[in-house]
Known about the structure:
The chain is globular. It has one domain: 2-Layer Sandwich (Ribosomal Protein S5, domain 2). The protein contains eleven helices and 15 strands. Helix 2 packs parallel to helix 3. The strands form three sheets. Strands 1, 2, 3, 4, 5, 7, 8, 13 and 14 form a nine-stranded mixed sheet that branches. It has a four-stranded antiparallel sheet with strand order 10-11-9-12. Helix content is 37%, strand content 24%. It is an alpha+beta fold and 352 residues long.
Amino acid sequence: MVISRTPYRVSFFGGGTDYPSWYLKQNGQVLSTTIDKYIYISCRYLPPFFEHRLRLVYSRIEECQHCSDLDHPSAREVLKFLGVDNGLEIHYDGDLPGRSGLGSSSSFTVGLLHALYAYLGRMVSPRRLAKESIYIEQDIIKETVGSQDQTNAAYGGFNRIRFKQDGEITVQPVTIRDERVRALDENLMLFYTGIIRTAEKVAKSYVEDIQFKEQQLVRMHAMVDEAIDLIGSGDLDDFGRLLNEAWQEKRTLSKLVSNFQVDEIYATALSAGALGGKLSGAGGGGFLLLYVPANKQPDVKKQLSHLLHVPFSFEPTGSRIIFYAWHREYKEEELAHTEYSRIPFAELKDIK
């Protein structure tokens, strides 16, 4: 059995500039971090005693003979991409709900890829995990998604991620003093709005004509540099105010980015002492990230008591294999078609 653990992410600035339709013409960048909330994917060899040869467990249970029969698009295409067709059971567990704006779908894709590579006897680099996840989601499934979520999930940490016109993606850890990072971490609050939305629908409402949003996206791109300067200089409250400016810019991208309910929640948070914030991800619902000075956090929590407050901390690592069990429970002939399932962890091959 193999278990991968892949973090969710929180994006601060630059969201929208990570869509290929933008950065392949204009360049893009984001400032984001992974957090200590995770998606767990377990994969195990399925013995040949069942009518089905493939079992996938998430909010549904799918049992079939071949991966092409799966309804779950990411699982189906990852299995096809790696050539794993049957004789497998996969379980998904997440600390947070899907459709939440914290990159859950991409964390699933990265985590499943990572787990299956280990199952196949290979250890892969974050670069490969990110690039292949982007390819699967954007080119095979053809989802309207950017490129930051997969990169965040694969690499982990608090980073400036640059998206270049030639398609190259670079990850630059933000080098600031640990106490500043801790202070920023402590001034952030995350609330679940309970509003479920499909990120792709929201994203489609502005990505399809993204070149006409140049003024907003150029400004949002520049905010990444400003935010890093503010953190470096210790002006964390101004970082919070910049979040508010970024949210106002993002709201102009599409009418679906926000709604009356979200606007009301956000206004309540500001009146209680928050300096800024934003909906995570494409918008429309999910989780609301707020910058709130520590002395104001009890007031904000009280005013938003109808929402679920989710404490979190920054997570420095990306997707990891946290469990790898190698055993010989079955006869050699039963495992003949899955030679990779008999490779000890110490012998896994690294692939850049």
